[in-house]
Fold this protein.
Amino acid sequence: MDLTIPGGPKGERVSPNRAVADPPVAERTASDPVLVVEKLTKRFGERVAFSEISFEVGQGEVFGFLGPNGAGKTTTVRTLGTLIEPTSGSATVAGVPLNLANQVAIRQRVAIMPEAPGLYLRLTVKENLEFFAGLYGVRHAEERINDALDAVNLRERASDLCGGLSKGLRQRVGLARTLLSDPTIMFLDEPTSGLDPVATLEVHNLITALRRKGITIFLTTHRLEEAEKLCDRVAILNTTLRTVGRPEDLRAQLFKKQLVLRTLTPLGDPDRLFSPIATVEEWSIDGAGAYVLTVSDPVAAAPEVTRRVVGAGADVLSISETKHSLEDVYLELVDEDVEARTT
Amino acid sequence: MMDLDFTRVRAVVRKELLDYRRKRSIVVTMMIFPIIFLIEPVVAIFVAAPVESGSALRTYVVLPLLYMLLIAVIVPSTLAAYTIVGEREQGTLEPLLTTPLSEQELILGKAAAVMIPAVAVCYGVYGLFLLAVRLFAHPAIASAVFHNGSVILAMFLFAPLVAGWAVVVGMAVSVRASEVRVAQQLGTLASLPMVGVIILLVTGVVKATFTSAVDFSVGLLAVDIAALRIVARMFNRERLVTGAKNKSS
């Protein structure tokens, strides 16, 4: 995929919370957050869409917004995009305070791609983009449209009617549309929803390219592996904000560090072997010849455990650290909510 | 009313006209009534007796006015009723509302895009009628038609104004409706009062004089502008996007 992103900044943007797994682009420097949300609440009558949510998103950051159906993700995006008025709380979007008077100013600075791209099916790809370029007052629209089409690899389909495009291609046109106005923040609401794996990968590649260009992306998704792959930080929403942080930090906060040890035959007296090791906090049996050890430092504990078990004459088949995915974090938090509601 | 950005209004008009052109059912709907309403008065001048009484001659002058103004009401009402709820049904409203386009710009652009073809069709059909009169009508009929300047003036002034009413009423319905079909039916129904006004004019209850044409036009213009403002106020992004019936708390 050609990854020429129109209007992308040339290195002045920053990701203050960028994940270790995906190192920051060298040119980035620290800067103020572009999205600040403080105790924002939205109610529809008696129904609470989201309540007292607070978080910040740094410039150039890819921020994942996760949550089950009905958690308030889309309503949050619509509120920050000035489609819906908040009930209480405050926010600053792209440096502009969120209020009635600033609605147009905010909409000038952000781009939102809803879950369904919402294209005019009787218009061509290019005509769709020309229309939106007109609404944003884009200068040198022709050039900008061509750049956006190049970014999503659709230049050759510019004259096709949108009604004739596959769902994946329509999604790409939707993404091209968000690129037209050179937004400070791009809100992508479930951008890969309903796409096949190839189309999903293409969208992921585009988001990665946007991130490299330093464009701030607010990504709502159900797909946890997508969030883990693309996002610097994630927030988990279930009407209230359950947590915000880097995926690895969330894993560390929620789950103890554990080693899984497998031996050829069950150990005769495991407690005698494990208890003296200072880094082992507790242990349990997880089937015949399988032991789960909760440790303070897996790197220090693993060799020590192996030595003692081998020294006791047992054959070690494997020893590994338990890896928790973002999905585990998500399920842990969402399950807590379910349990809280049922008790 | 806030400042309008006419670049954005133009973008809406251009897109709407492009979209109409590509939708055959819209083109057919726009053409079918005008053709029917053109046939009757043109046939009437062909079958007219060589010498007619004054009141009979008046029919050749006023009846086309009735038909032409009916075109101005009927053609835009269905289209106007589609404007907002149609965007909503096809899922294009939300992306549109995320742009800097204001409510007023959207309403104005949509209204203009409906009015332009409707008024063009109306004028075009009336022009064809006048051409047919000039070429084929008995001189007495032609004279009655062409020497009745107040009727021709009324036609040219009233057509955009009654079309404007139909557009605004149709859009008001479209802003509140949840389905295109319901909106179109209600939009047509809501245009009926204007048909009553046209009938008063054609039947002579309101005399088609130069003064009455101008007075009536000024009144209609005021009503259209007021109605357009009311529609812009009725426009509630939140309700349109979420479908929530009551405004958020």
